[in-house]
Amino acid sequence: MGEHHAPPFSLVDVFRAAERVVGVERILFGTDSTFFPRGWWRDIFDAQMQAVKALEVTTQQARLIFGGNLARLLKL
């Protein structure tokens, strides 16, 4: 028997699943990366921004993901 591998998930797939399971009010954009040197990478931000655009969320929902949700959490 051959090995069975699940198809790889795209970034859009991951965002779509997160949106469906927890909603845009609970998704946070993260700036840390596993690449060296660590820190914020423009290409990672751009890829995540394109994935969110592919979900066809509203501008307000995208703003929640890219900062609004964190701002709300930090006010607690």
Number of helical elements: 3
Mean pLDDT: 85
Strand content: under 5%
Secondary-structure-derived class: mainly alpha
Radius of gyration over C-alpha positions, nearest whole angstrom: 15 Å
Q: What form results from the Cα inertia axes?
A: globular
Give a count of the beta strands, DSSP E runs of length 2 or more.
Answer: 0
* C-alpha end-to-end distance: 53 Å
Short structural summary:
The model has no long low-confidence stretch (mean pLDDT 85).
Walk me through what this model shows:
The protein has one domain. Helix 1 crosses helix 2 (42-54). It has three helices and no strands. The chain is an all-alpha fold and 76 residues long. The mean pLDDT is 85.
Topology, please?
Layout: H1 11-22, H2 42-54, H3 59-74
Helix pairs in contact: 1-2
Quickly list its features.
globular, single chain, 76 residues, mainly alpha, 0% strand
